[in-house]
Amino acid sequence: MPYVADTIAHLNRTSPAQHEFYQACEEVLLSLRPLLDNDPKYRKYGIIDRIVEPERQIMFRVAWVDDRGQVQVNKGYRVQFNSALGPYKGGIRFHPSVNAGIIKFLGFEQIFKNALTGLAIGGGKGGSNFDPKGKSEQEIMRFCQAFMNELYRHVGATVDVPAGDIGVGAREIGYMYGQYKKLTGSYEGVLTGKGLKWGGSLGRKEATGYGTVYFADNMLRDIGESLEGKQCAVSGAGNVAIYTVEKLYHFGAKPITVSDSSGFVHDPAGIDLELLKQVKEVERTSLAEYAKRRGGVRFVPVSDYPAGRNLVWSVPCDAAFPSATQNELNGEDAKELLKNGCTLVAEGANMPSTQEAVEAFLAANILYGPGKAANAGGVATSQLEMAQNASMQQWTFEEVDSKLQRIMAGIYQSASETAREFGAERNLVLGANIAGFRKVADAMIEQGVV
Ligand code: GLU
Predict the structure, then answer these.
(1) What homologous superfamily is domain 2-186 in, according to CATH?
(2) Ligand 1: centre distance to CA 189 (Å)
């Protein structure tokens, strides 16, 4: 497969030290082999070379003043990766680990994820190395305003529509929206994940977690099984994890773990959802606090994790829902999950499994839903928010949720049918990558070399 090695070598030369980006590209490119072997048009029109190169990358300085009166400077990014199918769409991440390579990998994944939803949205991503942890409310507001002071000139309701991601929720979207409005004088759907009183969509907050569980349900129903009674290991304790836990309960499953940067909780009786929401959404504190208040649960601090392992995956479970961050589940973790009898993995996070872990899941032929298919419910519901804003309507929760269920079923169908079409039954990595790529690539060909 020289095109894979050649492309990755080219990216190494031209975009040095962007390892997560190479990883995301390699996974997609390897999956495309059966398609490229069958259809010469994608090479003829230079689609591979074009699709790995963002249409535009914006990097900017974010200067703000902290509560002590000190000037702070962070890096700001927006990668407008591909607009073949619609305006750029994708979240904004505030986390100290953010750099150009992370934002590029996320933007690249977003292209195919968004295509899979069947909706008219292109791929983009943004963020900053700003660390919201320990910052006051005022500092968060000033940072969000400073971030928007540059971003506003690059976005717009039909141009580029950011949303939340790690470290960016309704509060941050609110501050950014307020500043966008102040700067432009325009009340438009330029961001999604907005507050319900000012243009947000019912069901958007829950959508990524709910969607991941709907996706898992689709995988299981296809083989005549269900989530009922399944012990589920969930990682993360943010928006995706919380609403994964909530929806698992609706399906009669039992979520038994959650994790954050302080450690993980194993709660054999089932995670106490109300307490989890109180600790993480209201008090914004650590899971150690959950363990203290709940009592009778095991809390394992990260300082006890052996090097290179994420111990949340050592808890025996029937199904795993990685919902924290990229590369949080490696080959060793995957082996342990499989050894303990896990037969389903549905990714709520973006690229949580390393390449070795993905290979282990595929080799074991378990039900494996890669992030770009399984977690697409969030961005899909963002598009539903855009549709409501454009038509000046607000749909009911039930309306949004039933559309979300249909979209997740459609994504599953399209990934599994595509896998079958290329003789790789059950390989949803291949199915999702080819199905997403084909849509984007065909649109790029029809729109000419631009
Ligand atoms: N950050 C989410 C994702 O990774 C949502 C993006 C959006 O709603 O635009 O898909």
Answers:
(1) Leucine Dehydrogenase, chain A, domain 1 (3.40.50.10860)
(2) 15
